[in-house]
Design brief:
alpha/beta; 50% helix; binds uridine-5'-diphosphate; binds magnesium ion
Length: 316
């Protein structure tokens, strides 16, 4: 099979038949063998009955329905587990992404040798309150992930080599960082294609402004996991040592001050009145905590089934 199209959706009943017709038209025109995987993320409107209805007419349609709304990432992950095509395309269900882009995305994976091609909505039809924070967000994501050529990490329209989606796990809200996940899994050939974007025709966006707060927190988590995921002691041990050093210097200072004051017959210098005394206490306690966190981290890693999973590129 050439192409699997994975479509996560949550309450998008008005868009579905238009989307399905459009996809079918493009696939037929290009002679692709394909499947469409609708992942209904717990819709409460008529989305799923609409899909059932569409599936009766088109045998290329597969669908799965969550029992409640889990989120876009779990929906994508589930679609990825099901996908059988050589190239896997993800797109949103709200008609903002155009199926006309699929043939070129397919070609870029197949012929140009990309592992992942991400859409770039250069001209966006979203409100300013969304496009400006998005620019900032993408700049940070580029910096942190080291994927310098991507303008639009969170574009719903993306294409993947099948092997990529089988080797990454999208959970929580991590769909914003799939290129970063792919890079970490060893798929470094990441490309970009400018795509047409349309204003949402029906329904409304499912994400509020909290997306940016959560987005940044998730980016922090991913960065941490990438750098110290299997060696937490390297960061916590360092922080702990720095704290101990500060504590040690503070103790030394306070002792010297005391000795100096005794020698100069100034008996009114009390240790507990010195700022260095408190600094030494706080620094030592924090240092100890960093070390313990590091040790606990190492114990957790030791028990993780993932700790020795490597993606083998070649073998003789
Ligand atoms: N979506 C989903 N589960 C959710 C929220 C969104 O499957 O909990 C789907 C939604 O139906 C759409 C896609 O994810 O197909 C992108 O959502 P939306 O268009 O609301 O995001 P935006 O375009 O505003 O970034
Ligand atoms: Mg949308």
């Amino acid at each position: 099979m050439d192409i699997s199209i994975v479509i996560p959706l949550y309450n998008e009943e008005e868009s579905l038949s238009e989307l399905e017709e459009w996809i079918e038209r493009v696939m037929k025109a290009n002679g692709f063998s394909y499947e469409v995987i609708f992942v209904d993320d717990g819709s409460t409107d008529g989305s799923y009955s609409k899909i059932k209805h569409l599936a009766e007419k088109n045998p290329a349609i597969r669908a799965i329905r969550f029992s409640r709304n889990y989120g876009k990432s779990p929906a994508l992950n589930t679609g990825f587990r099901m996908a059988q095509g050589d190239v896997v395309i993800t797109m949103d269900a709200d008609l903002q992404d155009s199926p006309d882009e699929i043939p070129e995305l397919y070609r870029m994976i197949k012929e140009d040798g990309y592992d992942l091609v991400s859409g770039w909505k250069k001209k966006r039809y979203d409100p300013l309150s969304k496009t400006i924070p998005t620019k900032l967000f993408n700049a940070t994501a580029r910096k942190v992930s080291g994927i310098k050529n991507l303008h639009d990490f969170n574009c719903g329209l993306k294409a993947y080599r099948n092997q990529v989606v089988k080797n990454i796990e999208v959970y929580g809200d991590m769909h914003r960082y799939i290129p970063y996940l792919a890079k970490n899994a060893g798929f470094g050939r990441i490309g970009e294609k400018e795509v047409k974007h349309q204003a949402r025709k029906y329904g409304h966006t499912k994400f509020g402004l909290d997306r940016f707060v959560n987005g940044y927190l998730d980016l922090g988590t991913l960065w941490f996991q990438t750098k110290f995921g299997v060696k937490p002691m390297h960061i916590f041990g360092l922080l702990g040592s720095v704290m101990f050093l500060i504590g040690f210097l503070a103790v030394l200072t306070v002792i010297i001050l005391k000795i100096v004051s005794v020698c100069s017959h100034d008996y009114y210098f009390y240790l507990t009145k010195s700022v260095y005394f408190y600094l030494s206490l706080a620094a030592m306690i924090m240092g100890l905590q960093f070390f313990l966190t590091g040790f606990i981290g190492e114990l957790i890693i030791r028990n993780s089934s993932e700790r020795n999973n490597y993606l083998i590129a070649e073998e003789i």
